[in-house]
Write a structure and sequence with these properties.
CATH architecture of one domain: Alpha-Beta Complex
Shape: globular
Largest sheet: 6 strands, mixed
Distance between the termini: 61 Å
Number of strands: 40
Strand content: 15-25%
CATH superfamily of one domain: Valyl/Leucyl/Isoleucyl-tRNA synthetase, editing domain
Radius of gyration: 37 Å
Helix content: 25-40%
Length: about 1100
Amino acid sequence: MKYTPNEIEAKWQQYWATNQTFKATNQSDKPKYYVLDMFPYPSGAGLHVGHPLGYIASDIVARYKRHQGFNVLHPQGYDSFGLPAEQYAIQTGQHPAITTETNIKRYRQQLDKIGFSFDWSREVRTSNPEYYKWTQWIFIQLFNSWYNNESDKAEDISTLVAIFEKEGNATVNAVCDDNIAVFTAEEWNGFSSEAQQQILLQYRLTYLAETEVNWCPALGTVLANDEIVNGVSERGGHPVVRKKMTQWSMRISAYAERLLEGLNRIDWTESLKESQRNWIGKSVGASVKFPILSFPKGEEKATPGYMTGGNNAHLLIEKAKENRNNPTEAEAILWNALRGKQVGYKFRQQHLISNFIVDFVCLSKGLVIEVDGGIHDQQQEKDAERTAILNELGYKVIRFKNEEVIGDLDGVLETIVNVLKTQPETPLSFGEGQGERKYIEVFTTRPDTIFGVTFMTLAPEHDLVAQITTDAQKAAVEAYIEATAKRSERERMADVKTISGVFTGAYAEHPFTKEPIPIWIGDYVLAGYGTGAVMAVPCGDERDYAFANFFKGTEGMPEIKNIFNQDISEEAFAAKEGFELVASDFLNGLGYKAGLQKAIEQLEAIGAGQAKVNYRLRDAVFSRQRYWGEPFPVYYVNGMPQMIADEYLPIRLPEVEKYLPTETGEPPLGNATVWAWDTTKNEVVSNDLIDNETVFPLELNTMPGWAGSSWYFNRYMDANNTEAFASQEALNYWREIDLYIGGSEHATGHLLYSRFWQKFLFDKGVVPVDEYAKKLINQGMILGNSAFVYRTEDGKLISKGLVGDQTVYPIHADLAVINDVTNELDIEAFKAHPLYTEYKDAEFILEDGKYIVGREVEKMSKSKYNVVNPDIICAEYGADTLRMYEMFLGPLEQAKPWNTAGMTGVSGFLKKLWRLYTNDEGFNITDAEPSKEMYKVLHQTIKKATEDIENFSFNTSVSQFMICVNELGKLKCNHRAILEPLAVLVSPYAPHIAEELWSGLGHEESISCVAYPKFEEKYLVESSKEYPVSFNGKMRFKLELPLDMSKEDIEKTVMEDERTQNQLQGRTPKKVIIVPGKIINIVG
RNA sequence: GCUCGAGUGGCGGAAUUGGUAGACGCGCUGGAUUCAAAAUCCAGUUCUUUCGGGAGUGUGGGUUCGAUUCCCACCUCGAGUACCA
């Protein structure tokens, strides 16, 4: 009876689907096992043979675990929101939902053909409203949460508000924005709702803020850091520029430490964990303050340029501080609108000018803004006098009433902006006040080298640069800043060798020695890391060393201070050990560890610094200016974001005319005409109805690709639940993924963000575990085997063997026009192929009458015409052969080249397996007792297959199956007692043939849950061993001896052997080493 | 540059508490079967050789009775990361 894979496979695939064989239940007495593949994006290109590699491995594990008696959850679904469908929609006008649906259908067909044991009843798609309802729900949970450093977890925002109401924010230890103004409980309670909302945004785990983002003009959207590779977009390779935009961000930085710590508790590949550690980038060190010593105009006074107070400054400054901490409602609102250069210029609040404290001032424009409460009505005269004095000092004064600020902030701001436009730039004055001293704050991992500080370097973008630069250096500094700004990120990255920088002319004061330290700017200091400033210690840091030497001898660059008892004439001494500190005052004689500790201690003692941990991990931008993504459940009232209540979710993606940004530059959702939120009807209504009273505009951005994939593994546990994202019972039963398989390209994207969300959901008590995947394996890539034809300089095509030394141009040949096994080119097919029309009439130079193509291993890709489609392999050899061959290629985690020719080996194996069970007439099984040899090979196979599957070493178990079948074939084995367990062993790898054989053995039920055969040592016990006999470690011959023979007898027997005498040629061995059961080694 | 991983026949790869290097498969060679081919089966296939052997797991050294496996130095390839203070 012939083995007909196509018939058998179609039959069993149908059977599994009809009987829902692989449907998992959420209640079971069996132990659970959850095995998951990383979420596929259903691309238009379909699957190539590389894609199912991980799916086959996970399917083998899933099927094996079912045999082992586990209740197995093995689901599949689609990460169906994403850029490619949208790009396609822009080009063709086709709705992305339609292309996505088509692509999913094709994916499903392809997956079904390979015979996976997925529980399709739990399929999820991120673009389904029933699914993204819960993505929106999680977003709302994040919005309604803050990170409490005291409890070290996320808490509901209400607990924060409770603290504000009772104590203000001074005592709150939260992960939040930098530079949050301090307020008291009274002030908080007095703030308007908008002011309160503005403040809360600075604490929420997802927040709306103006941030520097990676803007990709070609894609028309922002990208996350992990979506950029080498300065260009990961998808499409388009340039990316920095741009300031108001965006939703995720406060992932709150979880930096826990994300790092959690890595120690999960069994993920070391390289992947290392990537995450690098991405989080923890460094431990100290933050140190260096007072600025000198200021412009050649004056050496320690008086900062923005200090404009008069003679009473020392008294007034306290009052000003008090005022700052106790703003009126109107002041708070206006400050929130002015702070941080929101109107384009820097404003200061409650600032001393002469003997007045003004409410707000923009020093660079000489504009004072006063907000008057009721009290001012009675003192208009005094105000006029005050205004006159301020005018005399060169300030323009404008006044607003409290009601104006509270009621019409937009109008007030418009006035301010207009006045700013008309005011001339005024350089910072140099007043006589006693102001606080201004500091440069740096972060360093080497506080022990504090006495080696030779100069300081600020990032060119650093806020202080403009203020401290001396007149003499001003031109040079400005020119440098301009030049740096022009250089794109990419240039800056490509060119790391060029050293550049400029001296500012200013000096800072060393906190211990009080020596002046010159301040430089240089673009090797990154504005975005730490404080954007470094204390340069050339003797201990390569970059500082290079910088110091480059500017050696120029103004502002002193001799390098060496504080190590080591030579630094050639290079910096950057090691953290092997030195003693010298010329370092109280640190003398210490090494790194002790020095670090002592230095921090002393810095803290004099108030110049403290220990600090810094992370490279930045908050993640969560808005995308795209159509095909989850809409935010957010509408805006007076510019403040409001969440839509849970019961009205999902907010469905609206229909739009076109998928491009609007003419005014708004995201594609700006094209939607029905995209407003009616707060009385609680539904999405036409934009025409927006009145900003009960109907408000909805958010126009959508969520990024990683939103839906950051929690899908939890949804599979209870995928059809409409009441919750999964029931507590289901979550508590399945808990976490036992085995997660996928590509390593997700290391710092999906795999980091999803851990963040999981920890957040854990904090909120929604999920029972804070790490969602116990074990993770990265499958290696399957590489393509590209084919080439060679064009000579005179336009002929020459067969590979004849190329020789001549210059030829290789051209990718489509695998469709070659014989993949013999490498022979089908010349007629080649000529007829639309890609090669220009070679229609070309002359072919053949060898032995054939044109042989060259082969080269490259990434499998459409553009290289080396893609192998699994459908074709299944049709030709069968899915079982494909599954086994993919596993047989090599270790799962390694990259390996595809070679279709190798299929025949596995194909032959399955035919031989089939033949053990059948003869020409049909199944042919005997119930006779098998021989000892048959049992031995079966149990060897049980042992090896079990060990291998537990170690995810699938290639070696396929080898063992081959050995087993070859042996059983030789032994003419058709014994039920052997062939039944063998069918079960093979079933995870080649499930279709296993089912067919199982039914041929007379069973009614599917093989899928039959108990796995048990290994029994007794079948492997041997009475003798063929000992390898080595001389000086080299094996020379073999000798069969009983295993129970004593060492002495073995030695005697070996020495008497003729071959031993031959090897020794009369010499007496110095030593004979005998390891019973293993080896005999004769030395001498 | 740094971090991680890997270097074994013509090819994919196997073998590590240090104990017979090259399992298994592809390819190749020869043979059987066939009118012929495909398919199938059998034998051989690391290199070298004067057929006794000898050499051999990227290179050089070391530890050991014995090293693909452990240690040191170096070379090559791949992946990640990139002025992170």
